[in-house]
Request: fold
Amino acid sequence: MSGPIEDYALIGDCKSAALVGRDGSIDWLCWPRFDSEACFAALLGSRDHGRWLVAPCAEAKVERRYRPDTLILETNFETADGAATLVDFMPFRSDHSEIVRLVVGTRGKVKMHTELILRFGYGAVVPWVTRLENGALRAIAGPDMAVLRTPVRVRGKDMTTVGEFTVSQGDTIPFVLTYARSHKVPPPSLDPTAALEATEKFWKEWSAKSRPAGEWTDAVRRSMITLKALTYEPTGGIVAAPTMSLPERIGGKRNWDYRYCWLRDATLTLLGAMHAGYYEEAQAWREWLLRAVAGSPDQLQIMYGIGGERRLNEWIADWLPGYENSAPVRIGNAAHTQLQLDVFGETMDVHYQARRVGLSTHQSGWDLQLKFLEHLKDIWSKPDHGIWEMRGQARHFVYSKVMAWVAFDRGIKSVETFGLDGPVDDWVKLRDEIFKDVCKRGFNDKLGTFVQAYGSDQLDASLLLLPCVGFLPVGDRRIGNTIAAIERRLVRDCFVSRYSTEQVDDALPPGEGAFLACSFWLVDVYILQDRFDDAETLFRRLVGLRNDVGLLSEQYDPGARRLVGNFPQAFSHLALVNSAYNLTRITKPVQQRALQDQVTTAAG
Reply:
């Protein structure tokens, strides 16, 4: 049985990532990439679906932390006879991906045990395990191979690998598990101590670039480290989360695979990275985006694989019972085939923002953007599936139309600001037409607010973004009424729901947690409204939801008071970073996106 979502910590090497429980068990790992098949899948089932435990034999008090400014996890076990620290990390090696686990004795003697259960193919495939001449264990199944090196005497038991050992004060006992393709020769051994030093050096040097955010500096730095860990270094793509099918409601069916890159994260990612001082990462993300969307505009997708892959076919792993029996376990994501108009606005906005700060040449990608706007001209009036990827009938979602407005608006501003060539007169007419259409059909006169979709009487948290993208000023009466209505109807215990799943037919059973990014959007709106005390109060509550090592999931269940959804969630951490800088900096990301600020260049 897996632990609570908040009991997990993340380790990674910018190619893949693992989740480590407070009990010393690695319950999730996809190898060798974020989107590869899992070899430890206990998170979505039981120990029989793969895990790697290193822990004291006796009952222990557990405390843990990351080494400052790194992704190196230290779990301290205190027992009656002594104390030991388990140091977990994934070093950076170009040819192989590895997990290093060091057991360090800090007091007395501690009897420890390990249980390695490798199950390739998302917990379904038992490998063939043999011992090599040098004493290492090799596990092979199909294309996959893992090699375990440790001085501990381990043995086979009931299709698992187990071992017992004692660590004394001053001792360090290493375990190194390395992945390679099965047709290759076993990878060379690794010096664990040197790997630890190199990994710590990398993270500390990278973290040192992070710009301060007042009292939220530590929270921002931890979020930026998390976002770096969710970046696939070879391409610059950032996965929404390293996990799949963690439920938005325990026992529910809203379980999705988030190991892909969403275009709607684009502008928040760019602005957050730039304000934090990471212009190289912002540039890599923009270049990934440009490569991923290249091609015919009518084939633009809402998400792509970490290398820009387009086929993300969804299927169900029926042998996995799901996290706390939350089935089905979905692999792949069928939403990648949906029409979602907001991604056109995101694509145009991220390139416009990049040009404003000098992250790209003025001409970079412009021909492609012209084709996007030419295609959007023909489809903006169509219904789509919206920002929340509803699996029911397509509708005329207000936020989708607003982002179509953003697309043409940023096209117009790109021509006016950077001297690019484009049919500005036609775009101005289209922008005005969309604006009038939204204000007429997306505004409910009876309620006095904008609504989720044309003809609806339901609210949607995405409406909070209307002033943030510059569609209408925050002081507009219609915007003010909409914000107030969202506060009344979608806020529970200060946390914002995306929409009412009980009253909106989205082709799924009702019930989910509060979407954390939406709550951060409310912080940003409060700042635009000059409600700084409200913004800071809400931000403190949200930061307080992070687990003991500073991580956030996709959602929070106020009733059960626990994190739910995929974990850790990039969107939540991106929103935290942007809100922190909105609270503490003169040049604020939300004003920058709403085009109310002075331009900040990459040089400072």
The radius of gyration is 25 Å. The mean pLDDT is 94. Residues 215-593 form a domain with the Glycosyltransferase fold (CATH 1.50.10.10). The longest strand covers residues 97-117.
